[in-house]
Structures are given as structure tokens and as C-alpha cells.
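Input record, target 12 of the design panel.
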């Protein structure tokens, strides 16, 4: 059995076989796993890339190994339901966006940050509220659509603001970040139920 958290990721399965086989994945929730196989003589390694689960229910599926119509083996995969509350222990400032898939960040309702954050992280938090650069354009003059984030509860009580990164507000207005200071317009236009 593979027990995966809602964030997903890559899980490996190793097995030995001396016959040809094919691999399928069955689930009543659609395709949420991609499978990549590598071989060396009789040893096989299957890498299962599990997509983030952004739904309010867990999901299950089965990876089936067959030789023709004969089932050789199967592995059950269970992925937990989405948790809309996230506590992040920042190991390095400026890395919030790289730590989690965008599908997860866009659906977080409650966020607690522990550790150091900079302007890049504050920009990600703005995006998570759904208030982003809607109406702005990128470097190629293409429109940047407004985001559909859901963040309404933010806890920065154990976060330290550190110098660095870039906080973009509206119309390419950039705020420079200094230690222990949240710029005045950081959360301009954002709607929070709780902000600590």
C-alpha cells in the first residue's frame, strides 16, 4: 500500500519479474497518477507521480501489473483528502512558492508561517488571498489575470521578516523589505478574517 499525503509527490515501487508485463492504474476518481517505468534485466522500478489532491475527500486507486490477462501483482494507493490549513516551517526565506504545488497554495484557507520570510514570500501570501496583479501585464505586455486564492486566516506570530526578496503590490509597485518590518501596503486589498 502507498499512503500519500494530499500534497502528492513521487513514490517508487521495486519488483522482480522474468516475464513481460504491462502496468495500468484504475481509480473511480479519474487519472491522478502517472507511471514511469525503468528496468535492468529482471529488476523493475516504477515511479508513481501522484498529483495534489485539492478535494474534500480522500481517493483510492490500484496499480495493476499484468502479463496478458493474468494479474501478477497489484498495489493499492490511498491519498488523503485536502487539508485547507497549512503550517509551514520555513527553512530558508524566499522559498514558500517552491515548497508546495500551486494547486495547493491556491486552495489554502488558513496559513501559519514559522521562521524567516522575505518579500518573495509576502508576494506569494498576497497571491494566496486572491488579490494579485489582475489587470496588470507581464514583460511581453500579456494580461496577467487575477488569481482565485482562498486564504483568509494568516498567522505570522512566529515569523520573522528578513531583508530581501521582492514584494510587488499593484501596477508593478515594488516595496523593499527590511528586517522586522512589514511594508504599509503589503496586504492592501486583501481580505482576512484573522490576521495575527
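The sequence produced for target 12 reads:
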Amino acid at each position: 500500500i502507498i499512503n500519500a499525503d494530499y500534497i502528492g509527490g513521487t513514490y517508487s515501487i521495486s519488483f522482480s519479474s522474468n516475464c513481460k508485463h504491462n502496468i495500468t492504474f484504475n481509480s473511480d476518481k479519474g487519472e491522478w497518477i502517472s507511471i514511469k517505468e525503468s528496468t535492468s534485466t529482471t529488476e523493475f522500478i516504477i515511479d508513481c507521480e501522484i498529483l495534489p489532491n485539492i478535494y474534500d475527500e480522500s481517493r483510492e486507486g490500484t496499480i495493476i501489473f499484468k502479463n496478458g490477462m493474468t494479474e501478477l501483482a497489484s498495489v493499492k494507493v490511498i491519498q488523503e483528502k485536502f487539508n485547507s490549513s497549512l503550517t509551514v516551517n520555513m527553512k530558508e526565506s524566499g522559498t514558500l512558492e517552491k515548497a508546495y504545488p500551486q494547486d495547493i497554495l491556491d486552495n489554502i484557507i488558513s496559513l501559519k508561517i514559522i521562521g524567516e520570510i522575505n518579500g518573495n514570500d509576502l508576494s506569494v501570501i498576497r497571491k494566496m488571498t486572491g488579490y494579485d496583479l489582475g489587470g496588470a501585464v507581464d514583460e511581453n505586455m500579456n494580461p496577467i489575470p487575477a488569481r482565485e486564492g482562498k486564504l483568509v486566516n494568516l498567522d505570522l506570530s512566529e515569523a520573522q521578516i528578513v531583508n530581501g526578496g521582492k514584494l510587488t503590490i499593484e501596477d508593478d509597485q515594488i516595496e523593499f523589505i527590511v528586517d522586522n518590518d512589514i511594508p504599509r501596503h503589503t496586504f492592501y486589498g486583501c481580505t482576512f478574517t484573522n490576521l495575527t
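The longest helix spans residues 119-128.
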